[in-house]
């Protein structure tokens, strides 16, 4: 329980969760939408994964993250609370506008070329 609340105590991690509420996303997509460095995004994602809130899978060379079904089931009331209150983040609208802006663009390939 302590790990979950530690993971939720940082605004960048809440922003990540707000983007992942509806669908899984690649690390590259999260980096671009939240204007984070790869190392910063990865660090926050690992905290969320370690706490059991997120799970990941590899597709080719890319890591995709989503909110864990197990977390949603085991912490149903907390998940319901988060679904409502993550939308109250001051960055929620802007972050989701960024996600929509890049919808349909292969961000991962673009990011790989830039590195």
Considering the chains and any ligands shown, give keywords for the structure.
62% helix, 8 helices, ArsR family transcriptional regulator, alpha+beta, Arc Repressor Mutant, subunit A, three-stranded antiparallel sheet, 115 residues, DNA binding, 3 strands, DNA-binding
Describe, in plain words, how this protein is organized in 3D.
24% of the residues are buried. It is built from eight helices and three strands; from the N terminus they run H-H-E-H-H-E-E-H-H-H-H. The chain has helices at 2-7, 11-20, 27-34, 38-50, 69-74, 76-85, 92-101, 107-114; strands at 25-26, 54-59, 62-67. Helix 3 packs across helix 4. It has a single domain, classed as Orthogonal Bundle (Arc Repressor Mutant, subunit A), CATH 1.10.10.10. Helix content is 62%, strand content 12%. Strand 2 (54-59) and strand 3 form a beta hairpin. The chain has 115 residues and is of the alpha+beta class.
| Superfamily (CATH H level) name | Winged helix-like DNA-binding domain superfamily/Winged helix DNA-binding domain
Work out the radius of gyration: 14 Å
Label the structural class.
Answer: alpha+beta
The unreliable regions are none
Order of neighbouring strands in the sheet with most strands:
1-3-2
Number of self-contained structural domains: 1
The arrangement of helices and strands along the chain is HHEHHEEHHHH
> What is the share of helical residues?
55-70%
For the termini, the CA-CA separation is 38 Å
The CATH topology is: Arc Repressor Mutant, subunit A
Shape: globular
Mean pLDDT, rounded to whole units?
91
CATH class: Mainly Alpha
Biggest pleated sheet: 3 strands, antiparallel
Strand residue content: 5-15%
GO molecular function, one term: DNA binding
Keywords: DNA-binding, Transcription, Transcription regulation
Pfam families: HTH_5 (PF01022)
Protein name: ArsR family transcriptional regulator
């Amino acid at each position: 329980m302590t790990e979950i609340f530690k993971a939720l105590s940082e605004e960048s991690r809440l922003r990540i969760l707000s983007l992942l509420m509806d669908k899984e996303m690649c690390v590259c997509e999260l980096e671009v939408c939240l204007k984070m460095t790869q190392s910063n995004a990865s660090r926050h994602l690992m905290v969320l994964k370690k706490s059991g809130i997120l799970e990941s899978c590899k597709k080719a060379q890319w890591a995709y993250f989503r909110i864990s079904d197990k977390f949603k089931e085991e912490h149903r009331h907390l998940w319901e609370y988060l679904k409502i209150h993550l939308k109250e983040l001051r960055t929620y609208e802007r972050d989701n506008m960024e996600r929509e802006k890049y919808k349909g663009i292969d961000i991962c390939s673009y990011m790989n070329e830039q590195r």
